[in-house]
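User: Hi! Is it possible to get a structure for several chains at once, not just one? Here's what I have:
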Amino acid sequence: MRPIRTTVAIIGAGHAGLAMSRCLTERSIDHAVFERGEVANSWKTERWDSLRLLTPNWQSRLPGHAYAGNDPHGYRTMAETVAFLQGYSRSISAPVLAHTSVTSVRRTDDAYLVSTTQGEWRSRAVVLASGACNIASVPALAAGVPSTVASLTPMQYRNPGQLPEGGVLVVGASATGVQLTDEIQRSGRPVTLAVGEHIRMPRRYRGRDIQWWMDAAGILDQRFEELDDLERARNVPSLQLAGYPDGRPVDLNALTSLGVRLVGRLAGLRDGKALFSGSLANQAALSDLKMNRLLDTIDYWAARAGRGSALEPPRRFAATRIEASPPLSLDLTRGEIRAVIWATGYRPDYSWLHVPVFDRKGRVRHDGGVADSPGLYLMGLQFMRRRKSALIDGAGDDARELSAHLERYLRASGRVAA
Ligand SMILES: Cc1cc2nc3c(=O)[nH]c(=O)nc-3n(C[C@H](O)[C@H](O)[C@H](O)COP(=O)(O)OP(=O)(O)OC[C@H]3O[C@@H](n4cnc5c(N)ncnc54)[C@H](O)[C@@H]3O)c2cc1C
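Assistant: Yes, the chains can be modeled jointly so their relative placement is included. Here is the combined structure:
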């Protein structure tokens, strides 16, 4: 059978794919959105039960959509997030082909052949909006966890009831790690948290949500071309934030107040023994320093913008408390630790992309989302075009710019149709 033709194939119906769909519709560019599950599949099937967005409701702006509910400062549950994105998809009449997995994308002479579980398509351009967090990144040393200890990724974790009674080692103290630590410790299972590089962030500052500050002060709009070290910016850990209705913090001080034991970065696992780096105090001090620098930037912006007097006065938070000699090892064979959770990050899955665009680390080579293959685009990656690129709120600006680029590409390459 001959492939079905579409001008643009968008892979993934998360917010990034939907934002791009809306922008292509505005430009009258015919397209199809391929989705292996249903709209918002990642939020529906890959997150833990209690997760809420850590971005407030007002900060889920998408092309043609602004929050109009009565709780702009609340944080959506997963069910609310799914309902929100499904509603958005309907409102923009996105041409989503649900339950259609893309199994391969290949470049032909002047187009792409997109193979799916529902047949083959030919498109002039392809947008990879398949997500930045498809696979939990687990270090190779995880293989050394004794068989008597459960080993889970955050994508497998749903709630503490799933874990055996007893101690839990959470590896990684970014947004996912600190949120799971908070929940598991509160469930009565004592948590040891292995802390490497992390970004401490207050939920509220001077009477406003920290996301409000970063948005208002233009920090989230910082562009990729402006950075000296883009590679570094694309790999910084997520902020230690949670979207709890009570607004409680999840920084290391909040966790130790609950009884969580902090240890350094997990550096090795030998003969059932976890070995931790001795850099915990340094990591914590560095994180405090960076947080204070950001708060300085915010205060400076507030003063210049003439906002200072209307807000609570500047303040600084207590330094992170670290015990004098945190343990450097933990014997996982002793029975104290019954489960390990690898909150060590996520990565995209492009195993079906058969186009020679990968660098030595297996990442797609791109310049602000314009991939190194004609007519191939990305969406939703960390600091792709702006600091906010991986956030729901960042997809709109990126989709507007990339859809303009895509339209120019279609015109320059002669035809708009496939
Ligand atoms: C735990 C966690 C919490 C987060 N919290 C927030 C938050 O509070 N606020 C915020 O703004 N951002 C948050 N993010 C970040 C952000 O929303 C994610 O980076 C999101 O994955 C990016 O959206 P997306 O549309 O690019 O990807 P996704 O939402 O992952 O959508 C990609 C879609 O592509 C589909 N897909 C993948 N492969 C294929 C294929 N081969 N064929 C067909 N379909 C395919 C998937 O099923 C999925 O529906 C969070 C991320 C994580 C992991």
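Residues 11-17, 34-37, 41-42, 47, 53-55, 101-102, 129-134, 176, 346, 352, 379-380, 390-393 surround flavin-adenine dinucleotide (CB under 6 Å). The two ends are 16 Å apart (CA to CA).

User: Great, thank you!
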